[in-house]
Amino acid sequence: MLVSTFEILVKSQLPNPDQIEPLPNEPLPSAPPDDVLAKIQKLGRTVIQGYFLTIANLNDFKVTVSLAFTALTPSISLDETIGLLDVKETNLVIKGKPDLLDGKVRYTLTVPANDTGLFILQPDFITNPQLLDNKDFEVRGYVEISLSMLVKGKNAARLLLTPEHRGTFFKDLEADDPQLDQIVYSLPTARGGSLFKLSYS
Questions:
Q1: Per DSSP, what are the bridge partners of residue 166?
Q2: Would you give the end-to-end CA distance of the chain in angstroms?
Q3: 3-state DSSP assignment of residue 43
Q4: 153's torsion region: left (phi>0), alpha (psi -120 to 50) or beta?
Q5: Residue scoring higher pLDDT (36 or 57)
Q6: Which of 6, 9, 192, 195 is 20 to 30 Å from 34 at the Cα level?
Q7: What's the rounded mean pLDDT across residues 61-88?
Q8: What torsion do the CA atoms of 58, 63, 66, 69 make, to the nearest 10 degrees?
């Protein structure tokens, strides 16, 4: 079942002039003068953005779900991303599994009965600090959810799902004042609401 779109980033707010392409049969816009370009570049900061999905289990039994992330241009690199689950005030690393047949990456996670978990997919800049230097990482696509396993005798579950993007902006991590800022915004779900009723098909 479709949940939402997603976009994870380690990217400059402003586009790299070298990566701007014209529309077909249209001339490339002329670059602004160097003094103007220098002023524009002062406006931009780098953003690290992750996908956050709050999953509330409304059932009196634990629920295991599979989250499938589809991204094609580019695809998700398991070496440059990390999945985390926070249920008990700790971040548990959830390893993704690629599905070579359909280009999806799947994460399997369990939420205890009547409990709430927060799943996070974000760029792994801890293991790959070059992501912070290159500032050229972006992956976007869509997310699906399905039941992976339930306790014996149960074949359906009700969940509240609330997806968000959360981002941190910075100017220069070497400076005394890196000019940090944050942004959080909710994403619309494919169903238009938060209540999802999942069952085995």
A1: 50, 184
A2: 11
A3: helix
A4: left
A5: 57
A6: 9
A7: 93
A8: 30
Closest by alpha carbon to 68, among 156, 160, 157, 147?
A: 147
Q: Which residue is listed with tokens 């800049």?
A: 125
Burial letters 168-198, b for 16+ CB under 10 A, else e = ebeeeeeeeeeeeeeeeeebebbeeeeebeb
CA distance 132 to 11: 8
φ, ψ (nearest 5 deg) of residue 59 = -105, 160
Residue 41 has pLDDT above 80, yes or no: no
Angle at 24 between CA 18 and CA 27, to 5 degrees: 60
Q: What is the pLDDT of residues 105-119, one digit of tens each?
A: 999 999 999 999 999
Among all chains, which residue has been given the structure tokens 């589809």? 70
Six-digit token string for 197:
């009723």
Per the structure, how many domains does the chain have?
1
CA distance 91 to 20: 38
Look-up: residue for tokens 């953003």? 47
Task: Give the span between the Cα atoms of 3 and 6, in whole angstroms.
Answer: 10
